[in-house]
Amino acid sequence: MPYVLVSTQTRMEVGPTMVGDEHSDPTLMSFLGATKRNMLGNHFWEYYVNDAPRIVLNKLESCGYRVVSMTGVGQTLVWCLHKE
To answer: Per the record, what is one GO cellular component (predicted)?
Structure first.
């Protein structure tokens, strides 16, 4: 998978950080130390880590991912990364 979306809500200094959905690469999710969860009321699964986004972005950079874009949506921050 060449693209990864990383997001966090409200507190970007401490996490947690969402790092993938139910279709994400399980090997990459394992490398990030991500846990798969389903929040009450959601009809989808997501992977998250307790690390701050900065830690996650550093780990992804070490795997060859680069930030393509970043935006804020309400109290959520989202980064899009791509791997060549």
So the answer is: cytosol
Contact 70, 12 (CB under 8 A): no
Would you say 45 and 36 are in contact if contact means Cβ atoms under 8 Å apart? yes
What is the spatial distance between Cα 60 and Cα 31, in angstroms, rounded to a whole number? 9
- The answer to whether the predicted template modeling score (pTM) of the entire model surpasses 0.90 is no
The domain locations on the chain are 3-83
- Region at 22 (left for phi over 0; alpha for psi -120 to 50; beta for the rest): alpha
Q: Which fold has domain 3-83?
A: Gtp Cyclohydrolase I Feedback Regulatory Protein; Chain: K (3.30.1410)
